[in-house]
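lol ok so funny story. i was supposed to be doing the assay writeup but got distracted and ended up predicting the structure for this chain instead. priorities right. anyway since i did it might as well share w the group, maybe its usefull for someone
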Amino acid sequence: MLDAVTTEAIVAIALAGTAGWVFTTWLRVKNGYPLEGTWGQQLKPVTDSEAKRRVTLLTQENAELRAEIGSMKDRLATVERIVTDRGYHLSSEIESLRSGALENRKDEGTA
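and the output, tada:
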């Protein structure tokens, strides 16, 4: 009924499909994604006390990092306000004039 080429093609397609399924399952396990059974039941990871503790620690760390980012944003806003203040520009202009005058005195030999 089926010649050898057709049989080999069917076997190759079946092997490719199986290899793809194995590879995607391996990727899911490697990256921590949950595995599901035929009827949608969760197989892995099993929720245990270790996983709950890990989630709690990660949640606490996340809250700490968010608080730190908030304080850094406040500090950055303060620095931006100082830099954009007219007095800061005025003092930097005065300092540049002073350094320029000092350079001129050095060139003249009076400094």
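The chain has a mean pLDDT of 82. DSSP finds three helices and two strands in the chain.
back to the writeup now i swear
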